[in-house]
Every structure is written in C-alpha cells, then in structure tokens.
Specification:
alpha/beta, 2-enoyl-CoA Hydratase, Chain A, domain 1, 2 domains, 6-stranded mixed sheet, 3-stranded mixed sheet, 10 helices, 45% helix, 15% strand, binds ligand T3D
C-alpha cells in the first residue's frame, strides 16, 4: 500500500502528513492523487479544519525530480496535478493550516503558501528553488509571492532562489507565525483544534471574500461583504455567538450552515 500521504481524522481536524522523509517529501503522482482524495474527504461536514504537515526533517522539496524525464511535459504536470491541488486548497470551504519545518522548496514552498495559515519552526526555510534548475515559480508562486511580500522581494526570491528563513518570512508577511522548533507540532495541533471549533461557515465565506479581493474594486468588495455577511448572519453559529456573548459564556459553534 502507498503510504506517501498519511491521513488522520480526529475531533474535526483532518491531518495530512506528506510521508516520503527519505526524499524530503518530494511530491510524486501517487501523493498528488492521495492529496486530492484527502481534500475530497475534507468536504465531509465532520471535518472543520485541515492540517498539512510533513514527516522527517523537512516539509517538502517540491516535485520529485526523479519523475521528470527529458521528454517530460512540465505544463501537463501543472495542469494535471499542481494546479488542481492549489485550486482545491484555495477553494476548500474549510480553513487549511500548514506547519512547515526544515525545508519548503520549489512547489513545496508554494504548496505551503497556498494554505490559509502557515506556521513554521524557527529553523524552517522557504526556497523558490525553481531557478536553480532553469524553471519559474509555479504552483501559484508568481501569484501569491507579490501579494504576500511585495514585488521587489517576490522577484528577488524567484530570481535568486535563496533560502528565506522562518523569522524573515514572518517579518515579511510570507507566513503567519514562527515558533521554536520543539513547539511546532504542539502549536500546529492547538491552532488546528481552535480552527475546528470556530464557525466553519464564516470561514468558508471569508475564503470567498479573500479570493475575490484581488480582482475587486473597493466598491465591489463592499457589495460582496454585504452579501456574504448576510449569509453569515443566517447561520446557527452567528445566533450562538451573539447568545453566548450576551450570556457571558464561551460560544459552542457547530459549524453547521444556515
Ligand atoms: O512538471 C513538473 O514537474 C513541473 C513542476 C515543478 C515543480 C517543482 O517543484 S520544481 C522544483 C523541484 N525542487 C527542487 O528543485 C528542490 C531540489 N532539492 C534541493 O534543492 C535540496 O534537496 C534542498 C535544498 C530542498 C534540501 O537540501 P538538503 O541538503 O537539506 O537535502 P538533500 O541531501 O539535497 O536531499 C535529501 C534527499 O532527498 C536526497 O536524496 P539522497 O541523496 O539522500 O538519496 C535528495 O536527492 C532527495 N531530494 C531532495 N529534493 C528532491 C529529492 N529527490 C527528488 N526530488 C526532489 N525534489
């Protein structure tokens, strides 16, 4: 049995662990298929958050280069594997947390950056390694990098392919938070548990709003927020949130849609 992706579901969290540690979790065809199947599993209402992580000493070294033969059509790999994966992560109606330790290189870095929240250990590093093998950033890299860190840093990261350490990544806004190496697993599990207990429907609507904000004018975005907030206001979690506030108690969100 192929165990290159470990999938565990517990207490509302679907935990996905890239599991080819001897290859720094470089991504293969079977791993892509397993990731897509897991993201379909994540549509289950019992899943309220996804945690993506890697086994061994690093998060992910991108595409497995041993699969790349001289007659290989790179565009086809993107079309068939990476692009659907990045879209599935972005469009998943649940929050996706990525915990990065060690190296996140090439499409491995951009896989992490496609997630909603990225937490990294102090010794983690992000490398747009593509240029080292004559490629351009893919898996959404040329889209997400300028938006996260600005054009100047995005271009230098892509063109020089130098590692960006976790502290720098946090300071630049590439990722959410850096934690000590020994605290990563615990912190990631705690954030995932928190996400799984929050109003899932509100997070689905937030993801929709953020996805549209890149193209929208302020005016259009205000209209979209109006519509999405109207939908959020119809959920049981909104009613519970207000009720809990008035009763001065913690809210018990169910994640159920309206
Ligand atoms: O069609 C398409 O495929 C298009 C899609 C492209 C998407 C991409 O992701 S392109 C970019 C692919 N990734 C890279 O170019 C990164 C290659 N790896 C490295 O540069 C280095 O491994 C790292 C900087 C990531 C880490 O360096 P280090 O010194 O910590 O580890 P290492 O010794 O290089 O790697 C450990 C093992 O993993 C090693 O195997 P060995 O010698 O112990 O048998 C190494 O060959 C293997 N490995 C690392 N990265 C990959 C890999 N094997 C296959 N593919 C890899 N990407």
């Amino acid at each position: 049995m192929d165990d290159s992706l470990l999938v565990e579901q517990d207490a509302g969290v679907l935990r996905l662990t890239l599991n080819r540690p001897d290859r720094l979790n470089a991504l293969t065809g079977p791993m892509h298929a397993a990731l897509m199947a897991a993201l379909r599993q994540a549509q289950d209402p019992a899943v309220r958050a996804v945690l993506l992580t890697g086994a061994g000493r690093g998060f992910c070294a991108g595409q497995d280069l041993t699969e790349v033969t001289p007659d290989h059509d790179l565009g086809a790999t993107l079309e068939d594997r990476f692009n659907p994966l990045i879209r599935a992560l972005r469009e998943l109606p649940k929050p996706v947390l990525c915990a990065v330790h060690g190296v996140a290189a090439g499409a491995g870095a951009n896989l992490a950056l496609a997630c909603d929240i990225v937490v990294a250990s102090q010794s983690a590093r992000f490398i747009q390694a593509f240029v080292k093998i004559g490629l351009i950033p893919d898996a959404g890299g040329t889209w997400v990098l300028p938006r996260l860190v600005g054009d100047a840093r995005a271009r230098a990261m892509a063109m020089l392919g130098e590692p960006v350490g976790a502290a720098q990544a946090e300071a630049w806004g590439l990722i959410w938070r850096v934690v000590p190496d020994e605290a990563l697993a615990e912190t990631a599990a705690a954030i995932a548990a928190t996400l799984a207990a929050l109003p899932t429907e509100a997070m689905r609507l937030m993801k929709q709003a953020f996805a549209a904000s890149g193209q929208n004018t302020l005016d259009a975005q205000l209209n979209l927020e109006r519509d999405l907030q109207r939908a959020a206001g119809r959920t049981p979690d909104f009613r519970e949130g207000v009720q809990a506030f008035l009763e001065k108690r913690p809210a018990r969100f169910t994640g159920r849609p309206a």
